[in-house]
Design goal:
With 190 residues, the protein is α+β, with helices and mostly antiparallel strands. Helix content is 34%, strand content 23%. The strands form three sheets. A four-stranded antiparallel β-sheet has the order 5-4-3-8. Strands 1-2 form a two-stranded parallel sheet.
Amino acid sequence: MDKFLANTPVVDWTAPAVREQAHALAGKAQDPAFVAEQCFRWVRDEVDHSVDVQRPEVTCKASEVLAERVGLCYAKSHLLAALLRANGIAAGFCYQRVRMDGPDSNWCLHGLNALYLNEYGWYRVDARGNKAGIYAEFCPPAERLAYAPVAGEVEDVPGVFAEPMPVVVEALSRYDSLEQLLNHLPDLNV
């Protein structure tokens, strides 16, 4: 489980601002499920999804996402993992392949998290941010993700990863603007 608690260049949970936010969200709570829900709701509701608000900057590292309060799904998942890890909750990354513009459009990855709760094991959550037609919630053991699997449109990528996929980090690091990144969203070579 140690790798799901690690501080890394992207999941930089030891950054002072990240630790401060994580501890503020946890308060004096001892229940990991309660703390996880507080962290999830805060990232989902208080950190804007770049596309929803049309902010041009591209964020990647958890501390960067926290400072800017904006990011794509991938970046928001990096921040959520950091907040959870700072509170001693094992957290990893999950992905879905999604056709964002219908069944004839190109595939791209959608990033979300899994966290470990003793009562339920690994539990997936999606802090992408709610909007019309997209509603994600924290209600273990049931999953309420932004995108439900639909044949030919949304496919789950198997596994829980301790680190963000390199293809995701590379895309977030390569492009300087949201417009550029949206034209080159990461996907798996399948």
